[in-house]
Amino acid sequence: MQLNKQAKTKDNFRVITVLVILLVLVFGIYQIRRVIQANKDQYAEVKQIALTAAAMMHYNDLINLNAVSEDTLKIEYAVIKKMLADITSVNSSAVYSYVFTKRNGKMYVMADSEPNESPNYASAGEELKGVTIMDHQLMDNGSIPMVVYSKNRWGDWVSVLIPLQHPITHQNFAVFGMDFNAKVWKSKRNKDLFLIVLVILLSMMVVIAIFRIISNSQKLKKDFMLLKKAEADLLISKEKAEESDRLKTSFLKNISHEIRTPMNSILGFAGLLKEQNLSAQYKQLYLQNMINSGQRMLNTINDIIDLSRVQSGQISATIVRTNMAEQLYRLQDRFSGIASEKGLEYRCNIAQDDMNLNFYTDSELLHTILEKLTWNAFKFTPKGFVEIGYRSTGSHLEFYVKDSGVGVNDVQKSFIFEYFRQGNDSMTRDHEGNGLGLTIAKAYVELLGGEIWVESNEGEGSIFKFTVPFCLHEHDFQNG
Questions:
Q1: Could you tell me the pTM of the whole model?
Q2: Cβ-based neighbours of 300, under 8 Å, separated by 6 or more
Q3: What is the pLDDT at residue 40?
Q4: 94-103 sheet: strands from edge to edge
């Protein structure tokens, strides 16, 4: 009977081993499909990057360029070239940005992102090599961006080409292009696939070894419990990874919403302006709505760029002599009108003795921090007041933005300054915004050598506070 029991236990171990191996295989296949899909998504991502970059181009400057060598003497050429260089530097996956046009049946370079000393630099008026029929078609009558894969002596490339339409004639007058290094993606994909296969093989070997040991000896029961604990730890890690993916997905949906919504508004009101017999009052109303939507979309794009610069470490503090009163009154000029529109009381507290108070810090970063915190207060305060002020703690200045709004609960306090997090992540929330304001504010505060925190209870308003060093001399900040 003991032999039968041992045989039954051994059979059970075999069944469990087979099931675990099957699960590992299923999981491995799923991961392989994810890697392949991620590679496809990369093409969609670079296309979106190029579309965003093309939308930021200065069309008026481009129209004044003729794709000739004399263009290099024009200020418009310098502006376009700097913009192309900035676009390429901000997007880590991009290696080259350029604009070309067609003249006398040939394609000529208008400007590119490379410095003049670079071996890849293409001067204005230089004939574009390797032109295809599709390039001509895109220039002549194309309206849909084109994604092209190419291979040459420099490597594998994915080029995104976007036709640019003249703002008046609506005819294609140039093509904006961005090149991305596809070799990096392929290398990463192959590496990920190799690691997945290796993990699958190792996992199966481990599972077989473990269950063979368990089937032959009960002494490994303790080790088996340790294995279960490791499995639980992996599950926690998996849940954290899934939470991170969920937050990033929510953030991307929110950003997409924040770009599409004002763009749809602009296009909609632009269409209404085409109607005949439209009164001046309605024209003014439609134009104002278009301006507001454009400003909203520009703010979203600026926040994305600022976040990219923060994450890549491209922002540094420029220390200048800063007047306290001027900083607060700049905000009063900006938000007093908004307060009136929303029926709120706006308070700006600055002591009369401090009207001429000067200290050294980055005035623009400080203004941006205060602006984002104040805008956040207005956004979440349906009635009551918004108050801004400061106090001296000796070595630091402590600024605050106080409101009588909806408040922040304890759970939200733990993540409100984190990347991709908002108090309410859902797409049905009542307030517009991309959720980057507090994240950028925190990064700027830390860049200035200070700290930021929130004091609040849900339903009782909030006080956002931050500190900056109180430096009376420029070298004090640098030494601090």
A1: 0.45
A2: 255, 258, 259, 262, 434
A3: 64
A4: 106-112, 94-103, 172-181, 155-165, 146-152
- Using N-to-C axis directions, what is the helix angle for 280-311 and 221-273, rounded to 10°? 150
- What residue type is 240 in one-letter code? K
For tokens 């000529």, name the residue: 108
Rounded to whole angstroms, the Cα distance separating 16 from 18 reads: 5
Distance of alpha carbon 276 from the chain centroid: 41
Helix, strand, coil percent content, the chain, rounded in steps of 5:
55, 20, 25
C-alpha closest to that of 450 among 480, 410, 424: 480
3-class SS of residue 56: coil
Tokens 């309410």 — which residue? 424
366-370 mean pLDDT: 92
Indicate if the pLDDT at residue 441 is higher than 70: yes
The tokens describing 268, both together, are: 């909609």
Q: What is the DSSP string of 70-126?
A: GGGGSHHHHHHHHHHHHHHHHSTTEEEEEEEEEETTEEEEEEESS-TTSTT---TTP
pLDDT, tens only, 326-356? 888 888 888 888 889 899 999 988 887 788 8
CA distances from 3 to 14, 17, 190, 216 (A): 16, 21, 49, 13
Measured at the CA of 82, the angle between CA 76 and CA 88, to 5 degrees, comes to 135
144 Cβ contact partners less than 8 Å away, ≥ 6 residues apart: none
Hey, what's the torsion of the CAs at 145, 147, 152, 155, to 10 degrees?
Answer: 120
Pairing assessment for the beta strands 345-348 and 385-392 based on DSSP bridges: parallel
Hey, how many other C-beta atoms are within 10 angstroms of the C-beta on 107?
20
